[in-house]
Amino acid sequence: MDDLYRENIIDHYRHPRNKGHLEDPDIHYHDVNPFCGDEITIELKLDGDRIAKAVFDGKGCAISQAAASMLTEELEGMTLEEVKHLDKQFILDMLGIPIGPVRLKCALLSLKVLKAGVYGLDEWPE
Ligand code: FES
After folding, report:
1. Of all atoms in ligand 1, which is nearest to the CA of residue 105?
2. Are 17 and 26 in contact, with CB atoms under 8 Å apart?
């Protein structure tokens, strides 16, 4: 089963979904992982309080970039209130493979950037 998840991560890394920029995003936030310098930008277009379109840009390791790609797929249609409740476990379930402590920040970088952009919570998600 792990193999399927691993293949999915590699696929998202090699063929990222929703990668790029929006013309006129309602929310735009960029940050780096201070431990390695890898970076993620998240941009959202809103329809009321609902996410109509989510894109990302960035460079870095396979886990950080694949997690960002997968996260943008999950975000469309979600409300900003729902974003507040996304946690570490949501990302780990999405990735589907065991993530050791060293790679945890790779996995969580895009969610950290998202939450900082949506409601200014600039902390590593728990
Ligand atoms: Fe930098 Fe993974 S090694 S985010």
Report:
1. 4
2. no
CA of 64 to the centre of ligand 1 (A): 6
**21-25, 86-90, 118-122: range with lowest mean pLDDT:** 118-122
**Cα(61) to centroid of ligand 1, in Å?**
5
64 lines ligand 1 (CB under 6 A): yes
pLDDT digits (tens, 9 = 90+) for 20-54: 999 999 999 999 999 999 999 999 999 999 999 99
| pLDDT at 73 > cutoff 80 | yes
**24 to each of 40, 43, 46, 53, 85, how far by Cα in Å?**
18, 9, 10, 11, 26
Domains of the chain: 2-119 (3.90.1010.10)
